[in-house]
Amino acid sequence: MNNYYGSKMLTLIEELSRLPGIGQKSAGRLAFHIIAMSKERVKDLANAIVEAKENICYCEKCCTVTDDIFCPICKDGKREQNMIMVVEDSRDMAAYERIGEFKGLYHILHGAISPLMGVGPNDIKVKELLTRIQKENIDEIILATNPNIEGEATAMYISKLTKPLGVKTTRIAHGVPVGGDLEYVDEVTLSRALQGRLEL
Amino acid sequence: MNNYYGSKMLTLIEELSRLPGIGQKSAGRLAFHIIAMSKERVKDLANAIVEAKENICYCEKCCTVTDDIFCPICKDGKREQNMIMVVEDSRDMAAYERIGEFKGLYHILHGAISPLMGVGPNDIKVKELLTRIQKENIDEIILATNPNIEGEATAMYISKLTKPLGVKTTRIAHGVPVGGDLEYVDEVTLSRALQGRLEL
């Protein structure tokens, strides 16, 4: 990129354009927005970035990304302590938290088993899940890994380990997404929706 | 927003989501990308933000956003010193720089005259432009303000001041955009394209 604005702006634009989903043009727009912000707000932004990075750690219970020994959900005594929803990453947890229907605890695997990508069962937080099942009084494990090959394989793998422990192990339902058009739904989903049909 | 990740991540997501074009979801994605970056890269990003803000100033000649007394273009002795392209902001200058066809100097107005928004001729860098015309040896002023009401009014206003100074004053051409479809071009543009027709 040519240097029209001087080196400081150029550095900022380059740094911003390295972030995911931000191209050169968006980076330019963001950079101009940043230099138009007040000095305090710019410092707040820069501090938030450094502080988040410096203080980030995994919750000792559910392994989610947080900045304390336990995350806000594990610390919340009002959550049902006998149910664990297993998800691939913290953002999946946030997605379920946004609908606010699940009141139990989570367990974050930080990935899914993927032989192609060289990710085995020991590379994700499966061992930690099994330890929790043994230590905590868990009645149900809900497997909410992604509905793709890696997520399905991971769910299968975990269910084979948890069922012998006597824990009810469930998988979130596959089916046609609400609001969609049947015509555009893929064949595998249509088939799974048919298999999983419920009596009204 | 609920606090799933702890306060540091929440602060970072909130700061990021205040930036233009970044919603809650993108901010979450960016925040997770940032905490996954190396400590050095995170510091570089935070420093770039603070450094750009702290060092930013206007070029004393063309008024563009830069971090030195003169911007890289005004400092470049190889540019044609007798032509000034007048644009509304630094990003418009960058847009013309990217095509690399204009070899003269720029003048950045930092806005356009807009009575509705309360922006008058004294709120943009018109005075600075007139001073340059008197001090520098300028043969032509190219008015490249935006092709909207404010930009046209600003171009008209400036041309009325520069023409009496004996400087050739031109406006970038209006017409049908290259690669477009005539059918979808608005009426005013079609009319301007007809008026501005050139003999082949």
What does this structure look like?
- 2 copies of one chain form a homodimer.
- Chain A is of the alpha/beta class and 200 residues long.
- In chain A, 44% of the residues lie in helices and 10% in strands.
- Chain A contains 8 helices and 6 strands.
- Chain A has helices at 7-17, 24-36, 39-55, 72-75, 90-99, 126-135, 149-162, 187-195; strands at 57-58, 65-66, 83-87, 105-108, 140-143, 168-171.
- In chain A, the strands form 2 sheets. Chain A has a 4-stranded parallel β-sheet with strand order 4-3-5-6.
- In chain A, α5 links the parallel β3 (83-87) and β4 (105-108).
- Chain A is globular and about 65 Å long.
- The termini of chain A are far apart.
- The mean pLDDT of chain A is 91.
- At the A-B interface, α1, α2, α3, β2 and α5 of A face α1, α2, α3, β2 and α5 of B.
Largest protein interface, residues of each chain: A-B, 59 and 60 residues
Helix content of chain A: 40-55%
- The arrangement of helices and strands of chain A along the chain is HHHEEHEHEHEHEH
The major beta sheet of chain A can be summarized as: 4 strands, parallel
Oligomer: homodimer
Number of helices of chain A: 8
Radius of gyration of chain A over alpha carbons? 22 Å
- Straight-line N-to-C gap of chain A: 61 Å
What amount of the residues of chain A lies in strands?
A: 5-15%
Give me the side-by-side strand order of the main sheet of chain A: 4-3-5-6
How many strands of chain A?
6
What is the residue-mean pLDDT of chain A, rounded to a whole number?
91
Q: Pairing-aware structural class of the strands and helices of chain A? A: alpha/beta
